[in-house]
Amino acid sequence: MRLSRLPLLLAMITALAGCNFKGIPDPQVSARDTEWMAQVPTAEDDPRFGRYMIDDPTGEAPGTIVVDTKERQLYYVQPNKKAIRYGVAVGDEAYGWTGTASIARKAEWPDWNPPAEMKARWPHVQYTKGGPGNPLGARALYLYEGNKDTLYRIHGTNEPEKIGHAVSSGCIRMRNIDVIDLYNRVALNTKVIVR
């Protein structure tokens, strides 16, 4: 019986050998980042949502961020037809946002002031000072269409166990270490496409 599984095992090994995934080391972080991230609950890492250098599946220009909401992946396009892939949590169907924007602001451990629409839906949400208990996590990238704030963000999270799910009110959530990595790589005016 075990010999009958050998062809399947060999096929799986061959298929995996052809994959072009390369892990990306964690970025350097400050003492504050280390201290505050240690206070955020941890979640078991799912390799489907890890940070990897891969062949670019987007076809977009280097320097572009592409969020695939269906696959729960964010791609930061690199030269030579490569991309850094990060797992994300996205907006659930009722609150999801798609479109093209640019990063107009970047913030470390930002304060969170929920929009009026969110406060109307969930009266318990309130202004939260930046820190480990803040839903925006370690970093936030603010998405604008022209000069108008979309009110959507790419940001960290204090709920890493939700990466890979459609759970947010439209924002793109990342593990804190991943959003720090992306934050360090991108500049203001970076193009962001959410599909």
TrEMBL record:
Matching SUPFAM superfamilies: L,D-transpeptidase catalytic domain-like
Q: In which pathway does it act?
A: Cell wall biogenesis; peptidoglycan biosynthesis
Q: List the Pfam families hit by this protein, alphabetically.
A: YkuD
The region annotated as signal peptide is 1-17
Q: Which UniProt keywords apply?
A: Cell shape, Cell wall biogenesis/degradation, Glycosyltransferase, Hydrolase, Peptidoglycan synthesis, Signal, Transferase
The record's annotation in InterPro entries points to: LD-transpeptidase, LD_TPept_cat_dom, Transpep_catalytic_dom
Source organism, top-level taxon? Bacteria
Domain L,D-TPase catalytic, by residue range, is: 63-195
> Which GO terms of the molecular function aspect are on file?
glycosyltransferase activity; peptidoglycan L,D-transpeptidase activity
Choose one Gene Ontology CC annotation of this protein and give it.
extracellular region
**Residues at the catalytic site:** 155 (proton donor/acceptor), 171 (nucleophile)
Give the GO biological process terms: cell wall organization; peptidoglycan-protein cross-linking; regulation of cell shape
Q: Does the keyword Hydrolase apply?
A: yes
Q: Which family does it belong to?
A: Belongs to the YkuD family.
Q: Which PANTHER family match?
A: L,D-TRANSPEPTIDASE (PTHR30582), L,D-TRANSPEPTIDASE ERFK_SRFK-RELATED (PTHR30582:SF24)
Q: What is this protein called?
A: L,D-TPase catalytic domain-containing protein
